[in-house]
Design brief:
The chain folds into 3 domains: 124 residues, no CATH class; 136 residues, no CATH class; 86 residues, 2-Layer Sandwich (Alpha-Beta Plaits), CATH 3.30.70. The longest helix is centred in the first third of the chain and has 14 residues. 26% of the residues are buried. β12 and β13 form a beta hairpin. The protein is α+β, with helices and mostly antiparallel strands. It has 7 helices and 22 strands. 18% of the residues lie in helices and 30% in strands.
């Protein structure tokens, strides 16, 4: 029998056999800076994209020569190569249609939320359209456009040797620093004299935005020092306003209109006491990590798993698992058991994380786990 501290519910475990180790971390909640849990509206990432040619492949290029041959012919023409034309005046593709070492690829680069300046280098991701493999290939100079197809502005030029990862398929590659920005991409951070805070999805709820609104408004006389504020005390107070579960709108005070950066820095460094996520379980199956909130409970249940028999019981005790007991035996009133106590008991028995995850999944499916389960 495993008994938790401070008289909280019990977990009874009877084991047949032993298993390997288990790693479980309890979840805690505390104060954080506002900048840690939100971003400014307008500070979003952008995607640059283009169609390019990869050369130098070992016979693993595009099997269908049509689109690729036209792209090769057009590229050769732009570089000064002499290309024959047919009777209709179109480029004669017969000279390049049998190329097997060339592939038409989709090229993309991510502009960070802070924007990018002319001359900056961005990483590239290259995906084949119909080639069998991009191993050993080199991306020829490729213009990258914005995400909108109606905008033909070239924001960056991409080129370089492809790098394949052991974790990726052969038709996907990267080029570190392969895109050079030809135009500056700026991202706005305020509009109409106000900023809008976008709460990260992991923290977004009504409680969080209300707390943020209160913390900002409680800054008090942030604009003291201006004649207008002295004459009208109502101008001293901020008027942040929660707009839902993930948005908080904050007007920029008059004193900071000429220097909004300072005001934003002040706002993003406000400490915020977050509501507890203690009724949440986060599971990362790939890395074998389980984080359990202290308030996650499970109903009184009997669990049987790989020779392991578990009865979750509350403070009032538990009913022995014995067929000889009378059918009308009544269990005393019981509270719900804590999931973390189950995890502690399994940890003491060297039960692997995979078994704990399997039990949590089943409990949630049955409706006997009282809390939110998040899989990463």
């Amino acid at each position: 029998m495993f008994r938790s501290c401070f008289g909280i519910p019990l977990i009874l475990v009877t084991a047949i056999g032993m298993w390997s180790g288990l790693a479980v971390r309890p979840a805690t909640a505390g104060g954080m800076l506002l900048g840690d849990i939100c971003r400014l509206k307008g500070q979003e990432g952008n995607t640059l994209q283009g169609l390019g040619l990869v050369v130098g492949l070992k016979g693993t290029g595009d099997p269908s020569a049509g689109p690729t041959a036209r792209a090769v012919a057009r590229t050769m023409q732009l570089m000064g190569g002499q290309m024959a034309r047919d009777a209709a005046g179109q480029l004669d593709l017969s000279d390049v249609e049998d190329a097997k070492n060339v592939a038409l690829v989709f090229v993309s680069a991510q502009v960070p939320p802070t924007g990018a300046q002319q001359g900056d280098r961005l990483n590239l991701r290259v995906n084949a359209i119909s080639a069998k493999s991009l191993e050993g290939g080199y991306l020829m100079i490729t213009p990258l456009l914005g995400p909108r197809s109606d905008n033909n502005k070239v924001y960056a030029l991409a080129e370089g040797p492809l790098q394949l990862s052991a974790d990726e398929v052969l038709t996907t590659a990267t080029i570190e620093g392969g895109a050079k920005m030809e135009a500056t991409v700026n991202t706005s951070f305020f509009s109409d004299g106000k900023i809008t805070l976008i709460i990260h999805k992991d923290f977004a709820d009504f409680d969080t935005t209300q707390r943020i609104e209160d913390e900002i408004n409680n800054l008090g006389e942030i604009t003291i020092g201006t004649a207008g504020a002295a004459a009208n005390p109502s101008q001293r107070a901020l008027r942040a306003r929660a707009l839902g579960q993930s948005h908080v709108e904050v007007p920029i005070p008059a004193i900071y209109e000429s220097n909004p950066i300072k005001f934003i820095s002040l706002i993003l460094n406000i400490p915020v006491q977050l509501p507890k996520n203690s009724s949440r379980v986060v599971i990362n199956e790939r890395d074998g990590v389980v984080v359990i909130g202290e308030d996650v409970e499970i109903a009184p249940v009997l669990i049987s798993h790989r020779g392991l028999r578990i009865e979750a019981v509350g403070r009032g005790g538990f009913v022995p698992i014995d067929a000889s007991q009378p059918n009308d035996l009544q269990a005393p009133p019981r509270e719900n058991a804590k999931l973390k106590n189950l995890a502690d008991a399994l940890n003491a028995l060297d039960v692997p994380t995979t078994d704990l995850i399997a039990i949590i999944k089943t409990l949630k499916l049955k409706g006997d786990l009282y809390g939110e389960v998040i899989f990463q």
